[in-house]
Amino acid sequence: MTKPNSKRGSRLTRLIILEFLSLVLVANVAAWTYYLATHKPLLAALPVVEAATRSVAPHYLFSIQGIPEPVGVTVTPDGSRIYVAESGGERMIRAFDRDGKQLFSFAPPNTQPLNRAPVYLASHATGKIYVTDRLRHAVDVYDAGGNFQAAIKPPVNDGWSPLGIRLDGDRLLVTDVTQGKHRIVQMNKDGRLALLFGREGNGTGADELWFPNSMVVDARGRVYISDSNNARVQILDSSGTWLATLRGFSLPRGMTIDAEQRLYIVDGIGQIVRVFDVAGDDPEVLFEFGDYGAGDGEFNYPNDIAVDTTGRLYIADRASNRIQVWAY
Amino acid sequence: MNHRGLIVCGLALLLTVVWSNPAFADNPPHDGNYTATTDSCAGCHRTHTGSGAGLLKNTSSYNLCMACHGVTSGGANTDVKDGIYVAGNLPLKGGGFITAKMNTNLSASATTGAVTSKHAVNGMTGYTPGTIWGIGAINSGAGTTFSLECYSCHDPHGKSGAGGTATYRVLRSVPRYVTGASNVPFTVTDVITKEYTIKDPTGRYYGENYPATNDTNLTDNTKITTLTSWCSTCHTRIHGTGASGATNSGDSIFAYRHPTNGSNITNSSANGAPACLTCHIAHGSRAVMGSYSSAVPKPGRAEGGGVYLDSALLRIDNRGVCEICHNK
User: Potential cystine with A42: which of A34, A285, B101, B327 (Cβ 3.0-4.6 Å)?
Assistant: First the structure.
């Protein structure tokens, strides 16, 4: 008496299994088609899902290959465009889309590779790109399309050798490594330049800096400076008063902070990215990722890092001639 | 203040200057000022898990050095790739490894161009081990193959000068891992003042550190002569003294050799003996060779073998270094 129901049940079960297998097959074909077309896993193209906890490290997605010795990277807030400064080859600034496809490249007008050296970059909400040039001792400003707009120079020249750069709203922060005057300067919207912090020194005093390469501002207005040659990160309040020091680095270089108030610090010789939680009163160690090598997710003298609002990370992997893309 | 007080103050000041000796001290990490409980070793080395020779954490010492001394000069003003001292954009005395800013044609100013010869270092693009020309005993061949590293010549730890003093060039007494030589260790006595850049405002390299026909600023023979002894720790049989140009050394390749002991070089005529650095620079030159000069083969190879275009680290185009003194 139960046979007809049983037959219907087993048919339904087979149907469900068949549909499931069909779905798996379709998904597999889609994933392989996408992979063969883009050489990237399909998951990389899906929307980023926030990590369940803030202490979970990101994972490697893919790399943008073939960039000669990239040293600086920035990303527009919406994550649609990535700009990279290369220190090898033609020494250009290259623009990529989110998938790593190169859109165009640009350089200061009337320059040759021999007399320019773009290093670090910052992107403004308006789409403008700011680039420091070590050989030209300049901060160059470009529009989003890479068209040169201006070169920023201080009104009074008592030394100007910009290296690191950061935009904090309309405030421009620059690490000036003029010989004898390593320091952090800020330029407001009116163009006035003012000393924020520091003097040249080997790290004996809290305000001594030796080739500061980067700085970043957290949600509370605190400023973090990678005091590279002194192997430390200095933390200031918004007025430039020293608060604390982070240690445990070989050569801290580029830094960034994501929307979750996670501070990322690239250790250029440590071949690692160290991550701190800076949401609270005191920085707390969260995790670290990367190791030395040339494989996926391994670093070969990384120099800079940028993050977009979705949490995607872009890391300039200098000696492996690539930008690594990581995500949560 | 009475006379006694003045004398005491004066003596105190003098002793402070002498003991602190800031002119000899170089900047971290090459100053050699490691404490008994230093933290610095772990910045670059791994005691049991090193990936590279010398217990380096990472395999490429070249990439390690270029983290600070490369094009971006993120940790030093000495951009050895471009041969530029970034503070002031002045030419480095040693020239450059990729490009150099030199006035090799004795015109009005220096220009930047790709180098035509260099002491190539392992890690550079397209590197193959070179030859140490003239190393070893009489009749031991043209030279031996050697993989040159930055640390072959420079000691990154500092205090490599006479008596363990810090020197700004951190030159070793004998290039590291050079074997099979009849070389004699030679500790370079450093100059009082750091001299990273050439003095000539037109960028002419000849006349640096030695008095020559057109240079009245430099009269110190000691520096350049001692460096000849240093070069000879490797290029042993190239070094000639006295009448070596007229006396057969007995070597089948380096039979008659121009004297290089730097004696009597205040005399700009042919009676003087130049030093190695009278005619050559250490890192890389962009001098251009003409028909005859580019047909000069490397030691031990047959004449008429072809066109080499190698400028042999010379300071002036073609054989301008001959003409400076011989004035034919």
Answer: A34
